[in-house]
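TA notes. Do not distribute before section.
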Amino acid sequence: MYRYVSAFTIILLFAMPCMAEVTLFSPRSDQIPSDHVIDIAQDARGALWFATDNGLACFDGSWRTLHLNYANSSAGLISDIVQAVEPDPAGNLWIGYPNGIQVYNGVSFITLQDQQLFKSLAVNDLQRSGASMWVAMDHAGVHRYRDGVWTWFRPHSADGPGCYQVEQIAEDREHNDIIVVSVQEGIWRYSEEPGTPRFSEILSGDASLLLIQGAVNDPLGGVYLYNATTVFHYRKAGGITHLLNARDLLGSTLEIQDISAGSDGSLWIATDAGIFRYKDGGVVLYLGRSQEIFGGIVRVIFADNQGRCWFAMPGFAGYYYDAAYQPVSLDILPPAMTSISTQAPTPPYTETTYRISAKPTEAVDSGGPVQAFVERLDWLLQELNKFFGSISPGRH
């Protein structure tokens, strides 16, 4: 019975012409510098920042890229390999590298490479939370910057997480708490609620059967947790609950690469078979070969606050936009952050106290609606053939 319901759902979902648009950019000097995108963030002006293995790219209607300046290291990036990017509450952009951090105010950079301060210089992730910036350093736990003070939460200390290696940090905006994910050592929650430990364990390393590999902020509260086959949702009151399996998306085996949550309750899911938009318990949109998602493998995905879903795949980066879809307006950025600051860098980034505690361009036409419909129908018949074993595929 499940197969018949799944097939009927696929027909309804994919047989209808798609009037929305997919815009693609190929790696080159006047577009995105690389298709290997590691992180994406949006500032208060609406500009998108892309951390890549060939510089830091910015899209605000046109593309520009910041690179390592060999002649003057203080006038550019400290590395062309950018691993994380995140705007801070003051309107600056934090940039994480394998060899340190930079804070960029739109004009100049402040470089932080103090081995005594950070214990490790390799940045795994950056996360803004209220007035704080959180940094996950490779094999050195997490650091926090707040009000001019750096704090290192020593792993396995009374106030620190029970893990050295932190791959990702997410924010539970419902409680202003921080969630840190260690693939090998479990998941930990940081809270400043009176009477509770600073870091408490949500999921121990011994429960690694879930194989959680990432965490993503949910604008509506809590965080999403995911691995290659499953997405979970965590909320302080209800704990970890199962949301979906990868097989629920297409009725066949696929692998989840990344996820991003929209402000309307949608979950955008990047897989090795394309992009899915999941909402209210089911798939409401699929983007695959018919929409120029060549090869199907989408490695990174990001839902911005202008209704676009950005993604990167081998050979291209781009976005999906449906004019009929409008994201819900949420106060997801601090009121003080109105733009990338153009003021001179302020002392707190360089003169800090330190305390140890016990992240018009050329568009590729995606084809007309008739061609897209034919391609979708061809894909449909092939999928139905897998279900029933008796339906011949369409054209080849």
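Switch to the second chain here.
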Amino acid sequence: MGDLKRLQRSGWVRAGVPQPESVADHSYRLALLALALAPRFGIDAGRAASIALVHDLAESRTGDLYVHPDRSDAAARRDAKRKEEARILADLLGRAPGTDEWTGWLAEYQTGSSAEGRFVRALDKLEMALSALDYERTYGIDLEEFWESAREGLEPGPITDLLAEIRSRRPALTKGRGTRWIYLHGFASGKSSNKGVFLRDRFAAKGVHLEILDLNLDLEGREAFRTLTISRILATVDRLLDGSMRAVLLGSSLGGYAAALAAARDRRVEAAVLVAPAFGFGRRFIERLPPGALAAGEFETHHHEYGAPRRVSTGLFEDALAYPEFPDLRCPTLIIHGRRDESVPAELSSRFAAERPNVRLVLVDDDHALALPATLETLWRETASFLERYLL
């Protein structure tokens, strides 16, 4: 049953919610809601909480299965699911004391044969709506389909009224909240990027979740550094922002350039922080390829995330040539760049900032890695100050 702590709820995964709750998380809060609300309605709180705690135990074996209500065989599938869950729970418990009581609680939930069972079934929908509200406020994702599902799954009653009251306050509760924070790492880097992890931890202390995208993966989540392109990075960001209301993009080197391109074409991006952005990536780096690389169509480079050489297609640079060297970036933007940058000259960022009143440029005494402790502290201080209104 411990697997339930690691089993993510499939609906939130399907909706693209970052770090969604586990089945155990859901059952725990459902039990707390039962304990808190049952006395208001003359319901046995202990029995209701017990039902809440056992109602999804079988998913430790079945997984969090989802039956789409529009399927022609939805009713038959739900019935089969209920029978399988009852069988699995009995098998999990074996001859343990209280087995009949536990399986009875599950039956009450499945059939609604008791006031407590019906109450927990209603609370299950309310808990889903509360989770949707949590994610909307945290990540800026529009989860209307889950609010509709909660409403449609409830029969008229006090929980329906409570859901309606919460839903009526939803616009006010999500106003000014829900900005999605995304970090794009540099070329041949990854989710353990020094600057990405540094910023993620500093933002976490402010109660903000910074998502570090793994640009080494393709759109299906498979390792695909060899076929990395700017177009794929932008498609990954597009997919991540699908359904979002607002976003702040941060990026370093190649990721900084990609973040600028993404922000230039998506009005939901309200601000950008670019760290040594690799403006003109395609043209400048194609000139620096090893001899014969273009003819071979690929070359080998050291990959910092993997700690070993990896091959990458020259299509990365050819694809980059299709994009402007200096994106038409209109949102408020902060650039941090090292004066001694040997890979991307700071002059590029200076030129970019000089032409755009919406861009603030901070030059530091460092190279492209920007790894000096003093530099990292400057990076955080400038970033936190620049994004202060989004951190409130």
